[in-house]
Amino acid sequence: MNIARASLYSSAATAARLLAALVVVKLVASFAGPAGVGKLGQFMSLMSLLAVLAGGGISAAVVKYVAEYREDPARLSRLLASALWYALCASCLVGCLALLWSRPLALWLLDDAGYQNLIRTLAVAQLGIALLNYLLAVINGFMDVRRLALVQVLGSALSIAVALVLSLWLRLYGALLALVIGQVLWLAVGLPAFRRSPYFRPGMWRARFDREMTARLAAFSLMTISSALLSPLVNIAVREHLAGRYGWVQAGYWQAVTRVSDAYLLFLTAAINIYYLPKLAATHERDALARELRQGFRFLLPAVAALAGAIYLARDWVTRLLFSRDFALANALYGPQLLGDVIKIASFVLSYLMLAKAMTRLFVASECVFALLYLALVYLLTARFGLVGAVWAFTVNYALYFAFNLVVARRYLGAS
């Protein structure tokens, strides 16, 4: 299967996930305005953070090693048993910590202790979310793109139904609660689909400790957690800075534009995750790796440039459709954000080489450096240019990240 065909399946799944996310955003925008969208962003960052920690940050590792070991049943069995053990232990630990800190988290992120029970619900849900991520990673590792798309489409349909019911009943609280319940309900689709797959074996449910495989997962976990942990933490810090300096309404404008960006980029990042990670992990010849990277640039860069250009031209309509007329001032932020999106995708194509080849120390160091650099640029450029400076910080940071990844890729592939 090539990247074009993988993209067709992933596009259907991504469209469903995107629709589910936009339904929630639209509902929150309609009854809570820009300030509510800002708080929605905070809660979604917390969900992303806990989901990665609760799963032990090993989803990418499972994809990589399943792709490598799928022709070696003994090693595959050891890997999956160790991965399940790792994920279950991590989810129990993270869930307990979130329960203990539910009140401080509610006050810190949402400025309201009344959301404490929502945080508790999210904490309890971590076990189910970790199991779901394990199933999806195994399916992805076998490059079963059609089955993966089916789970995501049906799971997203359930999420939309839950979001409509709970948000109309409980308003903002219900919309946030629906995000949690909707994720867990994906198991109702994922479990039967996984059990009916041709590669499923009952032993895949056996969780046990394996020193060698756990060490491999832990090394990969460090890379994944550094990336997935830093991103929501930095975004939380950026929102706190913008809300403190300009108010939650202005922070909501920034959040609205970044949500549009995240939404359409899902189509491309899903293709990268579904196709490139297992493909690069299973490819060992450097000439073949270079060909895969060139193919990625030929396919993905024109696609992201076309999508970014279309959204820029239709930005007024997009803002009114997805949010409301109250978000009109956000239109001034689209230009630098969309330019940054193009550079971001170019960077991702190259950075997945570090993930696929387990360049742990280099990957972790780069994630830390560029996360801190982004935060520093936000403070510097917002002081100089106002709210739009936060968006320019995003673009400048990814331009520097692209240059770094280009150097790493050229050295690894032996280019002069």
Automatic annotation (TrEMBL):
Segments crossing the lipid bilayer: 46-67, 79-101, 121-142, 149-169, 175-194, 215-236, 256-276, 297-314, 334-355, 362-381, 387-408
Q: In its UniProt entry, what is this protein called?
A: O-antigen translocase
Q: Which UniProt keywords apply?
A: Cell membrane, Membrane, Transmembrane, Transmembrane helix
Record membrane topology: Multi-pass membrane protein
Q: Specify the species.
A: Fulvimonas yonginensis
Any one Pfam family here would be Polysacc_synt
Q: Which domain of life is it from?
A: Bacteria
Cellular location of this protein?
Answer: Cell membrane
